[in-house]
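RETRY 2/3 - previous attempt timed out on the joint model. Re-submitting the same 953-residue input unchanged.
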Amino acid sequence: MGLVVSIVLTLLALWVVQAHALSHAMLLAVILVLAVLQIVVQLAFFMHFTESAGPRYHVSALALGFVFTFCIVAGSIWIMTFGGTQPY
Amino acid sequence: MALPGYVGNAPTSFFVTGDPMIYASDVLIVLTVIGIVFVLTYYKKWGWLWREWLTTVDHKKIGIMYLIAALLMLFRGGTDAVLMRTQLALPNMHFLEAEHYDQIFTTHGTIMILFMAMPLVFAMMNIAVPLQIGARDVAFPYLNAISFWLFFFGALLLNLSFVIGGSPDGGWTSYPPLVENPTDPGPGENFYLLALQISGIGSMATGINFLVTILKMRAPGMTLMRMPLFCWSILATSILIIFSFPALTIALALVLIDRLFDAHFFTMLQGGNPMMYINLFWVWGHPEVYIVVLPAFGIFSEVIATFSRKRTFGYSSMVASMLAIAVISYLVWLHHFFTMGAGPGVNTFFAISTMCVGIPTGVKVFNWLFTMYQGRIRMTVPMLWSIGFIPTFAIGGATGVMLAVAPADYQYHNSYFLIAHFHQTLIGGVVYGMFAGLYYWWPKMFGFILNERIGRWAFWFFNIGFYVCFLPQYQLGFMGMTRRIYVYPAGMGWTALNLISTIGAYLMAVGFVLIVVDILYSIRYGERDVTGDPWDGRTLEWSLPSPAPHYNFARIPTVTARDAWWVMKGERKRGEVKRELEPLEPIHMPNNSGRPFILSVLFFLGGFGLVFEWYWLAIPSGIGVMVCLLLRSLEYNMDHYIPVSEIKRTEAALGRS
Amino acid sequence: MSLAHEEVLSHPDHDIPLEYSTEDGVLKIFGFWIFLATDLILFACLFSMYQILHLNTAGGPTEQDLYNVPEFMAETLILLVSSFTCGLATLEMRKGHRGALMAWLIVTVLLGLSFIFLEVREFVDYVGRGATMQRSAFLSSFFTLVGTHGCHVSLGILWMLSILYQLGRRGIQAITARKVFIVGLYWHFLDVVWVFIFTVVYLQGVMH
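RETRY 2/3 succeeded.
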């Protein structure tokens, strides 16, 4: 089941890129959303994310990790493009 | 084998030559090593050293080793500082030449942050955290030993550059494109990169280790909100270490790839972007200052509550402000390079977030003051350092907010105003905190109390010297003196202030020497701590004998409230509880192992090989590291049980039943 | 290891998987989740590096010149399938089937090896066309980002081989079960990272 969903998501991403149907920014957004869905698939189907003995600290830890990941990537791009005024 | 490529174009060779000060240090180093080897051999202590220390996985011993190493590094970094201040005391001095001065400010900064502040913090957390939460060791004792030895050999690698190959001279922040091959040939910069990388792996492992320890190994009944505030501070610090050190790893690795393989991340040619390094460096760098200062906050909370004989005022707001600092400190990194000019939107965002981080810090200061209010205060040495910290940090914090005003920062940037600001926060916060912790937990570590009288003298020398040294530097910054200049002409109006500042630095040095004197004096004459609770403490570490037995707790305590030990003492005093002692059970402990040490030696050799691009050394060492990991994976008997009879004997010898 | 409170379970409870049955296992699995969070940040830095530099080709080969759709699709599908087989291995372990567990792990290792083979071939091909790491900032960051992932995968393969050996010698027990579970987490994590490499590096590169 997990395999099917993840392969469908991958092919979908390839298809939207090759179909030239969307603008550049939209396209980027769509494929990033598809990639995020892939994370959910991996966590839910393969990584047994919700399992734990005792309180689920690893869920909060990983959530915080995602927040900081977003901060670093978005912040760096925002800064290094001088507030979005340079191409990237 | 291939000679390092820098020989042709740099004035250095394998051994650093030419400077009488370096020859003197060479002689000193050789004599010290001969001395240590002689003493160990003469007293037949090699086996003892290996069994008791080099192979230990006991968090208390690892903490002590961190402490010793950190104090040595404080001596080295402090000597660098005194040399710099001597050079700047008067205009047109020729005590140090430019190149030597560059090396000294680089090693001063690098050592003080990464090889002094970090290990001091790690020392305190290793010594106190498992005892405070009622655990018998950290979650991963073997990994803890690896962390220590990686730090140790990282520090050794950096210090080796002093006599072999030449010290790094690109500043502790090591900005490209200056540190790229064309402008900074020679092994110095490689030493910096690899030393930080090796010790950084250890720091990251420590962060993971203590996060797991605190979240998963608390004694029964010790909920998160019953934890001592020091443990909370270590929890927040661990979170910051975990999420910020990878950025440093990447920043340093990419500079190394640039230098070793001629890549173009941060070069000026082929599309490289040096500002990206500065961005990544400060993604780590800003959380880093909170990594070292939050544990100091934790120590102040413990010390102030203990010596005011009151519970901490506003416990929940202390916890909340610590977590707020941990998160907000992630969102401020651009304030280190406002002058890049990323645009009004970007600069405004980071200016405001920077000012916000001051708010939770302010909350904590008021909580400490209210904890002292109406308390029965005892002015011991740890308490002196804690009270001394409040004004220094208030000044440092206020100047920090000034620096956070982005337009004004264009004036302060890289001036002595900045130098004064961050020394005020880092010394006034971290060093004061660690000295408070040193005096506070010393009896727990070694079983005797440091002499209070000498300690007071040390505090006053250091504290007065501190203001004398750094207050003039704010003024010098306003007068246009920039950081990292090694000489200045007469007639700038800077002379008097620089001279005063240098006098202050010497006073601080006297303070440090007095602490060393205090330690040496107290080893012989210090008051022995026979109760295990010399300060009438509040937290669980004081329920144990000093020093604690290697398994810490013969019986794991059950916690019913905050300040667990204080509550237990109260119950006992009122005779409320005649608690039935549960029968002792065999204690499960990890085995000692020599592999962390060997693994770190291999890391060291690999790092040393890469410094000189000696792949014949680096590659076998890397394979050796992999073999060590594999051998560990194949090992299944990693622990043992201490039988009840032995526990009984140990406890009886310590006067406990 | 260790220490505070012995086995979490003093009595066998079939609801709790073997890898969680000792305190040691619980601590190590939690610690490994935290490690994955650090690795996540590590890759985040490399991704932002790539995103900043990927247009800085300095007149050298560009993304469109290099990336080849069938090639990176093959790599992606192989890795996705290997993540699936690795998941099957964990499920077989929970049922206590050692043979099936080892078989699925071997399949995973083989898929991993073929992924590495394709990636090395891709790198060699690029270098042969003059697209070396030294050519431009874009290529420096490409090789570092994708190469770091490749190193992780290679390490994962060695790790799985070591665990296969241990499974062969000791069978499924608390320690080996924990090791299989952790290496599985690692492998799925690498799949997640690859999905982002696929998206940010390859798909973005062929978008125009």
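Chain A has two domains: 1-51, 54-88. Closing ticket.
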